[in-house]
Design brief:
Blueprint lengths: L5 H8 L3 H8 L7 H13 L6 H8 L4 E6 L5 H16 L3 E6 L4 H13 L4 E4 L9 H8 L4 E4 L9 E5 L1 H14 L4 E6 L5 H14 L4 E6 L3 H11 L6 E4 L2 H13 L9 E6 L12 E4 L2 H16 L7 E4 L2 E3 L5
Parallel strand pairs: 1-2, 1-3, 3-4, 4-5, 5-11, 6-7, 6-8, 8-9, 9-10
Antiparallel strand pairs: 10-12
Length: about 325
Amino acid sequence: MNNTTLKEISTVLGLSISTVSRALKNHPDIAEKTKQRVTELATTLDYEPNANAIQLRTSKSNVFGLVVPFISNFFYHSFISSVEEESRRNNYSLMILQSGDDPFVEITNLKLCRQNRISGLFACISTQTTHVEAYLKLKELDIPVIFFDKVPDVGNCNKVCVADEASATMAATAILEKKKKKVLAIFGNNNLLITRKRLSAFTKTIDNKINLLIHHANNAEEAEALTLASLSQNPDTVFCMSDEILTGAMKAIQKSALKVPGDISVIAISNGFIPKLYYPEITYVETSGYKLGKLAFTSMMACLAGSTFMHELTTESILVEGGSI
């Protein structure tokens, strides 16, 4: 492990520690020749700033926290990749924590974030989270919080979301245009704002024009069981609110040996990866985790720059035609 210090560099070069420190920070008061000497020696000795000392001095680190229910979810995976990419580009690191969709683990993760003196937090709440006081305490410590995807149903906080109402409206419109008669529509946990937004927009667009069978599933396994049980009612189309629900519904359809779209049509709201795993590919309304990550990072940097304006931002969605409807 390299333990080169500013003092050692200053001793070798015959400079004060403060001069070495300012030279490494490219301070304008330091001569270019001195900066070059200091930088060359620091590179040769593989000098690295003491992160702990910096944290103690500034009360912050160049680290962002990111709390997500499951890293394995492709939507969150693409969101994380996007935020990590932007963090690295702006000289920040990213501490990624998963809650397992457990509010108690979520609280523990927030404690870890405080202990590591993070500069800001990106947070996707669990399905069981009903209170966000722990997040508000971070704001009191001058740590900005950007909620994304699954966001709390409260005001006075920064949120970035996919266009939930627009996405659901787009999917419902596609179903009506195909003149479908009976749709099995599977939504997520009804405690979540994202579910309620999508359900409201979807049913409003359908407007009793066709027969709707509405169910809620917390995971792929429940979606599979609900789909299997509902196929006896002969729906001609299955709408899936998310990728997780889509995987469960498709497993049920395959178990039942139904052909898509000959026997049954399928449409989903998706990040875009899962629909391409099937043949024919599933028609979906794109909700991009990668684009959402870019938007979340822009919002975070605005907060760090001093913005106190609380807002909810959304990304644009598009319909991607497959061969499933």
